[in-house]
Write a structure and sequence with these properties.
Length: about 130
């Protein structure tokens, strides 16, 4: 079954430079996204508990702006997950936009997954 794109926006109260480090580095991702993250070139290896390691490749990025990863299982597809930092021109409010792909009927579960992850990130950053 084909996955479809979903997008979520989270308000963040922190500096964009610090947030980017939590999105783009193995050390930063290991603080909130997974139990352990190892980076080898453009490949990131994620571990949660006793589950087998999962590989994602950094396929695009723009420093201080966004990162896009593709899970190994999604290679050969247009599926990815992306985290983009957006700063409002007028208010200077900072938001994190998450783009992901999920299967039909899994939207609520996917949203809850990202809400929990971003809550962990906000706690780490003191950005809640």
């Amino acid at each position: 079954m084909a996955k479809h794109k979903v997008q979520y926006e989270f308000s963040m109260h922190c500096l964009s430079e610090i947030l980017y480090e939590y999105l783009a580095s193995a050390e930063g991702l290991g603080e909130w996204f997974a139990d352990e993250v190892v980076e080898r070139g453009d490949d990131f290896f994620f571990t949660w508990g006793n589950s087998p390691e999962e590989k994602a490749t950094l396929v695009r990025y723009k420093a201080e702006n966004f990162v896009r990863f593709r899970w190994e299982e999604d290679e050969g597809t247009k599926n990815y997950f992306e985290m983009t930092i957006v700063i409002d021109d007028i208010t200077d409010d900072l938001a994190l936009i998450v783009t992901d792909f999920c299967e039909e009927g899994e939207e609520d579960e996917n949203r809850l997954y990202w809400e929990n992850l971003i809550e962990n990130l906000q706690i780490k950053l003191g950005a809640a």
